[in-house]
Structures are given as C-alpha cells and as structure tokens.
Amino acid sequence: MIDQDTARLWADHHEAFGRWVDIAASGIGNAFRALNRIQYQAPWETIARGRARH
C-alpha cells in the first residue's frame, strides 16, 4: 500500500521535483561564484576606488 502511494506521488510530481533541484543547484552555484569573486578580487583595485572589499 505504501509503495503504491509513493510510486503514484513520484509519477505525478517527479518533473516538478527535478525543476526544483535544478533551481536550487543553480542558486547554490551562483552564491559560490559571488563568494569566489568577493574572496579573490584584486585588493589594489578596490583601494584605488576608495571603497571596502565587500
């Protein structure tokens, strides 16, 4: 009984779950790219502009 319910739920919603995973993974990747830019930006460029690194 439980396996039938689980299989039905998966059949009905696996595409939506896949889209959610894709969006979540993309968001995490974007966050890490932004953190990487902040972490490894050239400090001499920010000092010349007169603003903080972050």
Describe the structure.
The protein has one domain. It is rod-shaped, with a radius of gyration of 21 Å. The longest helix has 38 residues, at 2-39. The chain is mostly helical and 54 residues long. 83% of the residues lie in helices and 0% in strands. The protein has helices at residues 2-39, 43-49.
Note the topology.
Elements: H1 2-39, H2 43-49
Helical coverage, percent range: over 70%
Main beta sheet strand tally, sense and closure: none
Q: What's the N-to-C terminus distance?
A: 55 Å
Estimated radius of gyration: 21 Å
Which geometry do the CA atoms define? rod-shaped
- Helices, by number, come to 2
Number of distinct beta strands: 0
Number of domains: 1
- What is the H/E order? HH
Low-confidence runs of at least 5 consecutive residues: none
Quaternary structure type: single chain
Beta-strand proportion: under 5%
SSE-based structural type: mainly alpha
Quick summary:
By secondary structure, the chain is mainly alpha-helical.
State the main characteristics.
54 residues; mainly alpha; 2 helices; 83% helix; 0% strand; rod-shaped
